[in-house]
Amino acid sequence: MILKSTHYAKQGEVARNWVLIDAEGATLGRLAAQVAKILRGKNKPQFTPNSDCGDFVVVINADKVQLTGNKASQKVYYRHSGYNGGLKAESFRSAMEKHPEKVIERAVRGMLPKTTLGRKQLTKLKVYAGAEHPHAAQNPVKIELEG
Question: Does pTM surpass 0.85?
Fold first, then answer.
């Protein structure tokens, strides 16, 4: 009789690394998909869906991210306050001028689980508009995006 058991990663035994991603010239959706995969830990062999086994991700040059086709002029972000007439709309271009970090954070948030675990995983994402970041002491490993 052969017994097989599945290994489940526990919170204390997960080794967290720091990853640096340069968003210059990257497509927003493809970048967000890669970042979400690393934040969840799906790139690790000990991935467990119900535990936080992902790495920290530092994204630099967020102001140089791109969209394909006509989306840069047509994409609109909506939010609602909950009150009558409380719908606010913001175009992609104005969002990139005001706060390019939030554009990437919003794209990644949409690809993470909508649970307390997903919100905890999102706290490990650090996005910066320029090339400088304050996480040099953590020695992040620079990786290239797939595709």
Answer: yes
